[in-house]
Amino acid sequence: MTPALNVQAALSGKRVLITGSTGFLAKVVLEKLIRGVPDIGRIVLLIRAGANGADARQRFERDIATSSIFDRLRAERPAFLSEFFAEKIECVTGEVTEPGFGMPITAFNALARRVDLIINAAASVNFREALDEALAINAISVQNITELARAGHAPLIQVSTCYVNGYNRGAMHEENVAPARAAIPRHADGHYDLYGLLKHLQHRIATLRAEVREPEELARRLTALGISEANYHGWNDTYTFTKWMGEQLAMAAMRGRSLTIVRPSIIESTLQEPAPGWIEGVKVADAIILAYARGKTNFFPAKPKEVVDIIPADLVANSIVLASVEALQAPAATRIYQVCTGSSNPVTLRQVIDLIQGESQRNWRQYDRLFYSQPKHDFRVVSRPLFLLMLRAMRVGAGGWSALRKLLGAGESPKLEALRTTQLLALTFSFYTAPRYVFHNDRLQALAQRFSGEDRARYTVDAGDIDWREYLCRIHMAGLNRYALRPRVAKPVEEEVSAAPITI
Predict the structure, then answer these.
(1) Gap between the Cα atoms of 95 and 103, Å rounded
(2) Is residue 471 part of a domain?
(3) What phi, psi does 502 have (nearest 5°)?
(4) pTM of the full predicted structure?
């Protein structure tokens, strides 16, 4: 029988390095470790220097220590939290996209010697990122992270996304993903060999940089190049394409060592801990909810009968903790876990829309930062061909009305502004609302069974516990209103959406 795993025994005294700690998910993981494993040896946060010259510690104090994610600990154990921040949080200034994080080699090697486990949560989660930037943070940086892991003989937890499955279809299990379209050579060890692909992409990036000098045009062309290459090889966007590449580079570099890839689906607000509904920034579903709340759109291209895979952030953090324990206590291996709801507690897009729309129309006054007035229209989902026809018809009508308004000195038509919002949201998110597959996580559930009942309760990964009506209508809507949105200010919805990262 496989020996039982234990969170406290595995992590007490250990030194854990976390990247991406200024981001949403990493904050949930950090809070979970501080509150759940107070005897952890040290948490090392690798943070890039700020644009204003702020070092890692200054950024921690400004961007992380002040976060509302720690409100529970501040209320329950304020002295402990202050002491932990002072004595057990080590902040290291470094740039993950640079070899050796831009440090002197002696400093890099010293860092490797004082780390027992690495959790890499750094990522660019902009779905339409310029290819060079997405490639640097989501793929090339993984090579730098694995260098640290290899130098320190430390297990690596690589946070990825279920959507590396790209344009594949059907049941998606916890295994390496084959490209859905263009052929990429596969190594005998199982990972895909990216040498030729990386050379090709870097050549195309260099060619564009040589041809285009104007910065805005270059950024636009690099974004278009990323989407084009992603689509050609079998992915919807640059984010998922480069995250898949990151997985392959990690598997290649960590052969014979301990590597665990954790793939969440669409990450949304916490279910329970540290507080129900905690969220930071506007996520995939929230951008559409926000546009609907402000009257900017009431229709969207989607498949209402298909399963949309939403996972609360605390279940993802719990999965990372359990995977970390296994990586420290079990023999070295490459493991893949998916953190998802589609196979165990599926919810369709139609159900999500009906629940949120019903709550919005009944109780919109409770969400003062989200709704400025009662929603006037039902939210409709339509097929993509019908959506395109509707856009064309509305563009003609709104464009004519906008031209007349401008002649009269009244400015652009609000209908044209709403049309642009709808088009932008569809361009960015329609892939995620028209799924072609269902994610499975049998291996993650089996991992949880290797822990004690106490650990399974404290670090639950069981999506079957989610009551979708309670979560979407009570927990998530309230959390979005409280944590993600600013107090009411009259300004375009596009500005509010862009004020925070949109992630999955």
Answers:
(1) 9
(2) no
(3) -100, 115
(4) 0.91
Q: How many domains does the chain have?
A: 1
For residue 228, the enclosing domain spans 7-257
Q: What is the CATH number of the domain that holds 43?
A: 3.40.50.720
Span 449-487, pLDDT tens digits: 999 999 999 999 999 989 999 999 999 999 999 999 988
Q: How far is CA 354 from CA 179, 345, 348, 358, in A?
A: 35, 17, 10, 6
d(CA 103, CA 410): 56
Kindly report, residue by residue over 205-222, the tens digit of the pLDDT: 999 999 999 999 999 999
Q: How far is CA 143 from CA 97, 118, 119, 133, in A?
A: 9, 13, 14, 15
Cβ-contact 330, 451 below 8 angstroms: no
Look at strands 117-120 and 15-19 and give their pairing.
parallel
Whether 357 is in a domain gets the answer no
Please list the residues that pair with 382 across neighbouring strands.
301
Angle, CA 284 vertex, CA 278 and CA 286 arms, to 5°: 55
Enter the tokens of residue 378. 């039902």
Dihedral (Cα; 282, 288, 289, 295), 10-degree rounding? 120
Site of tokens 């990216």: 194
Cβ burial, residue 264 (10 Å; 0-12/13-18/19+)? buried
Which one, of 126, 161, 152, 150, lies nearest residue 44 by Cα? 152
Alpha carbons 246 and 190: distance in angstroms, whole number: 14
